[in-house]
């Protein structure tokens, strides 16, 4: 399946995006400045603008990449366990927690509709096409990941119990 989101087309743009991702993932959003990014790829800040018109376009490209990867993780989970909401929820959580800064950057802004639709498609299929339940399940998974990333659970067993309760609520026969 292909999506309509623009991906970097030049080697330099891909290099810039890879450096931006490394900065973001290792040091957080504060580190993602055009000056720092230029330094990472060995060019001047004004040269970056030949590839990305502004910082927001870099952020958009990073968010698109994260959503594309989320779609791939969910599609892989769906292939391994067709129709399994627990498998999808686990894949979503695992991918989000592996990339906390990128996850927050992606989910804290309006999304590219075609990528969002692709990422949510396995969930919609697992919940028998029920769009309302699929949105609620997506909101559950997103809310749980944000709470976990923000340290809102006292202990690891509390996180696991909350995930299991939420998954059971969306899985027929598991309550």
Shape: elongated
CATH top level is Mainly Alpha
The quaternary state of the protein chains shown equals single chain
Proportion in β-strands: under 5%
The radius of gyration over CA amounts to 18 Å
Average residue-wise pLDDT: 89
Per DSSP E runs of 2 or more residues, the count of β-strands stands at 0
| Structural category | mainly alpha
Number of domains: 1
SSE order, one letter for each helix or strand: HHHHHHHHH
Distance between the termini: 34 Å
How much helix is in the residues? Answer: over 70%
Which homologous superfamily in CATH is the superfamily? Tetracycline Repressor, domain 2
Low-confidence stretches: 1-5
CATH topology-level fold name:
Tetracycline Repressor, domain 2
How would a textbook summarize the main sheet?
A: none
Count helical runs. 9
What's the architecture, going by CATH? Orthogonal Bundle
Explain what the structure shows.
The chain has 175 residues and is mainly α. The chain has one domain: Orthogonal Bundle (Tetracycline Repressor, domain 2). It has helices spanning 11-27, 34-41, 45-48, 55-80, 85-98, 100-107, 113-126, 131-149, 156-170. The longest helix has 26 residues, at 55-80. The radius of gyration is 18 Å and the shape is elongated.
